[in-house]
Amino acid sequence: MKLFFDDRQTAHAPLRELxxxxxxxxxxxxxxxxxxxxxxTDWQHVRDFGMAPLLAVHDPDYLAFLERAHGAWLxxxxxxxxxxxxxxxxxxxxLAFGRIDAELGAYSYDSGTPIAAGTWESAYWSAQCALSxxxxxxxxxxxxxxxxxxxxxxxxxxxxxxxxxxLNNAAIAARExxxxxxxxxxxxxxxxxxxxxxxxxxxxxxxxFFASIHADPRTDYPFYWGHADERGDGAGEGSTLNLPLPRxxxxxxxxxxxEQALGAIxxxxxxxxxxxxxxxxxxxxxxxxxxxxxxxxxxxxGRIAALGIPTLIVMEGGYAVGDLGLNVAAFLSGF
Length: 335
Hints:
alpha/beta, Arginase, Chain A, two-stranded antiparallel ribbon, 10 helices, globular
């Protein structure tokens, strides 16, 4: 397995987020990748594949906004991190705005995803990290690759950010895999939270199969997406599979959902797999409520690897920093 990370992914360093009605330290901090990096020694160089793969997934105006947002925030006389506070929930449409405040709301859906001075740089290189892992797989250099993507991506949609996510790394890699003719592409999201951005991007696309195992959105973020009756729309109907599970789910209760997802991916005829992996399913995670243990990750990974197809693992969540590196190492060992 080849491992990918770029130091520029640590430039993103917001100070705080709004969580449960209060300001708290930003949970998706640089200690997360550091805890994973120290578990391994052989990290590969991340190549720059430019903007074209990002534009294949994301709206160009949204990308331009991300690149200039923090500078516009400072130019408006503000300090610190740029955070939206007004969000259009009805008749959302393209408009020209004269204030950064309006743009922040138009391009996001929560107030827990600040834009700091280094956010664009880190998000850009996080996407390139995923693309570098994909490239190694496409060239046949390895059967499995791990992209330590930070910031994560699965909550980011075509033209919005949220849930600590700015660019959808898994979606960008999936589109590039399609472009390179790597066969039918499936995405398996096993983060604690539903990958609403990934689902949204491919909801009407019959060429990408998206399966997600996550906390029941009736009780957990992102609430509005990830319910079991969401199966895709139009030509993409049937290419989305959501398997929500209750709080407290442990490894034994998780396993049948994984088998169902893997069976659906196999039946769909996937020839290339992208795994959005979140270690926030661990029992020690401070913002999640599953009860998987470290040994469960080895077993889960082994079942995924048994599909026998090239697999790109893209890092998503996981916030128990003391356990995170060891949990990721356990998961990767299963491959």
